[in-house]
Design a protein that fits this description.
about 450 residues; alpha/beta; four-stranded parallel β-sheet; two-stranded antiparallel sheet
Length: about 450
């Protein structure tokens, strides 16, 4: 639908949002002036410009202005919340780098809150206005559905249930229709788009969609093809991208990480790793002396681990075992308390007395903040396996290393050593991957701190 891409209307909505944020800024300043001493409104110009800039960026990338797209209403409220949280956090971080005269905590919070209310009300009104208009059969897009089978029936049902999408099936065309007949149908119908839904078995049996697509192209009708390759995968997501030579491609992926939230995740990793490295430097003299005085060998333990998509890196830890630990691991294989490709033993004789204390309070993992700072690991993710463990993985286990590994993760706060089945660990890791958000990371970090304070599960 060409009208989905109306840049002019997007710009109008963006302008209205700017005016609403300006009104919210004025109202917030007016309210603050009754309760606390504030500078004149123009002295806080940086606050408005900074927040507005971040809001416009996140709103544009999350298609908050694309009100004519039939998918605009999908997840609208969660998108608005994420936009304001993202803009609010970044705006506050930038703002506090400037002199006090240009910011006020109370004014900023009130401004952000008022802006959220104004924008939420505006989008609520737009949503219900457009939904009502389309239910009254106005501002609708007439389409032809070309195809057959279960998928075509599902599409028809969805369009009839969701009249607010503004799509109306004016005619269904079966696959038995010849290209010449299809051309006549297009000639004699008012239709703005053709939906092609061809079952996989028909393409395997030689059905060719090319001639039908060419008719749409020559007659200037947009065509939306529901690709039957989607049935080849169970849960992978597909995205359209244009390759370097403008060749259209589809990418299948099983990890869907929001690019904007990934910026926050990396920024959070850097800040968290700097805090961790500071603690590492502060505790190093004492911990290093204890390790060296109680057992022979280096202070740090270095080991090759497998990171994102199989990339190997050197993981750092305080040495908590005797130097011959790796050689003795094979002798203790029969005492592994986990079923699967991970070794875990409660009373592991390879652990030194000091190492047992370090593990109990997780101090042995402090050096991994260096890995986080270098970008090899994240604060939250899936634990990085050794190459030997990966060699024992079943095929579906490999998806747990499709993201950057972390210091902590969902399975560590979901029972930790109470879980004895590696498959269950992987299922928790995959649950984290499939439902990831920056807020889930915050939740896991908070839960990890509670686990550490209660000294549960580590040995």
């Amino acid at each position: 639908m060409l009208k989905e891409h109306s840049e002019f209307l997007k710009q109008i909505i963006a302008t209205v949002d700017c005016l609403l944020l300006m009104a919210a800024f004025y109202l917030a300043h007016l309210i603050c002036s009754f309760y606390i001493p504030v500078y004149p409104l123009l002295d806080y110009w940086l606050m408005y410009i900074g927040f507005l800039g971040f809001y416009l960026y996140f709103a544009w990338t999350r298609k908050l202005f694309s009100i004519l797209q039939f998918s605009w209403m999908k997840g609208l409220w969660s998108r608005i919340i994420m936009i304001f949280l993202s803009a609010g956090i970044l705006g506050a971080a930038i703002l506090y780098m400037f002199p006090d005269r240009q910011h006020s905590r109370t004014l900023y919070v009130l401004f952000a809150g008022t802006s959220f209310v104004f924008i939420a009300v505006e989008k609520f009104l737009l949503k219900h206005t457009f939904a009502q208009i389309r239910r009254n059969n106005r501002n609708v897009t007439p389409i032809i559905l070309f195809g057959r089978g279960r998928r075509a029936a599902q599409i028809c049902k969805q369009l009839s249930v969701h009249s607010e999408w503004g799509l109306r099936v004016v005619r269904k065309v079966d696959l038995a229709v010849s290209p010449a007949e299809f051309e006549q149908i297009i000639r004699n119908s008012y239709v703005e788009e053709v939906f092609f839904c061809i079952p996989r078995k028909y393409t395997r049996n030689g059905f060719n969609i090319d001639s039908y697509l060419k008719i749409c192209e020559e007659m200037g009708r947009p065509a939306r093809v529901f690709l039957n390759i989607f049935g080849a995968t169970n849960f992978a997501r597909w995205e359209y991208h244009t390759f370097l030579d403008n060749s259209p491609t589809l990418i299948s992926h099983t990890v869907e990480l929001d690019p904007d939230q990934l910026i926050f995740k990396r920024a959070f990793d850097i800040v968290g790793s700097l805090v961790g490295i500071s603690i590492l430097f502060a505790t190093y003299p004492i911990l290093a002396a204890l390790i060296k005085l109680t057992s022979s060998g280096p202070v740090f333990f270095k080991q090759v681990r497998v990171g994102k998509n199989g990339k190997r890196f050197i993981l750092y830890k305080y040495r908590s075992m005797h130097i011959d630990a790796e050689e003795r691991k094979h002798e203790l294989a029969s005492q592994n308390e986990l079923n699967g490709a991970v070794f875990k033993m409660k009373n592991d004789p390879r652990i030194t007395p000091v190492g047992r204390i370090l593990r109990k309070v997780s101090l042995d993992e402090l050096p991994q903040f260096i890995n986080v700072f270098k970008g090899e690991m994240s604060l939250v993710g899936t634990r990085p396996p050794t190459p030997e463990e990966v060699n024992e993985y079943a095929k579906w286990h490999h998806r747990r290393i499709s993201i950057r590994p972390g210091l902590t993760g969902l399975w560590q706060v979901s029972g930790r050593n109470k879980i004895s089945d590696f498959d269950e660990i992987v299922r928790l890791d995959l649950k984290y991957i499939d439902s990831w958000s920056i807020w889930s990371d915050f939740t896991i970090i908070i839960k990890t701190l509670f686990v550490l304070f209660k000294r549960e599960g580590a040995y």
